[in-house]
Design brief:
- The complex is a heterodimer of chains A (220) and B (99).
- Chain A is 60% helix and 0% strand.
- Chain A has 11 helices and no strands.
- Chain B has 99 residues and is mainly α.
- Chain B has one domain.
- The relative contact order of chain B is 0.09.
- Classes of the chains: A mainly alpha (220), B mainly alpha (99).
- Chains A and B meet through helix 3, helix 4, helix 7, helix 8 and helix 10 of A and helix 1, helix 3 and helix 4 of B.
Amino acid sequence: MDVQGLQMTQNTPSPGVFKRNPPIAGEAEAIEAAKNGDAEAFSKLYALHKRRVYTLCLRMLGNVSEAEDMTQEAFLHLFRKIGSFRGESAFSTWLHRLTVNLVLMHLRKKGLNLVSLEETINPSEEDAPKRDFGSRDIHLTGSVDRVALERAVASLPPGYRMVFVLHDVEGFEHNEIATMLECSTGNSKSQLHKARLKLRELLRQPEPTAQPASLKEVTV
Amino acid sequence: MTDSLPDFDTMTQADFEKYLPDFFANGDGHVSTDPRLQTFLKNNPDCAALVRDLEAIADQARSLFEPTEDPSDAVWSNIQNKLKQQGPEDDDLPIPQTV
């Protein structure tokens, strides 16, 4: 796969991403050792990052099988290309960007045209958030349950879920998302807002309809 | 998205809805503490409730950053197998054995 197409260059990460990706003890040594072909160092990097990479894939794809495939691909790419990591950004930031780009490439191959985000992965009218501005008796109680939010995110339409995960969960900026999704920053802002409105709607629904069977069973 | 900001003194609910994505995108993302919007939010409790809800969702979303799911052991096995198939000469790769 074309690494350039995956945008493996180390753009300056947003401060938020750096803050959320602090160095991990022993990681720097493992990276250098892995660059020199130390097999155990690769094992350590996998152990350190497998959960976060897999969770990211699962949230973006909503499907266990595809998420595992993409996790596998992400680490295979990592092992092949770790020599190009120059330490100018947090390693996990670099790895997450690689993973996001692989997932997006996978989705494009599946026919989900992310180039025209607005037209092709915008949800249908029935999936779009209702335009009720919110009467006072139906707003959330000021707190959102983590598990309920996880379930609601899993049930979002793919386009909304993608932008929400990238921005609100992973901490990417709108300009970074726009580059990755090949859309405008305005489009990214709009999609994020609609995603939050849809989540609000889902979280206000009674439990049975707000919850899909489980995170693992939701497919794109 | 919008190119310019509205007049905060004469802003309607429709204006607010139109500009809300920009309000969130600018600054620290906390619309409820934006001094320019305090009067409007005080006079429009439904809008204030909406803002509170969306902020609560965005705040809780940060907690999702911590991973909760593990891939199955098959993923690492597959990675090892793929690397073995390619061989070190293919990509100059070592073959990790353990996690």
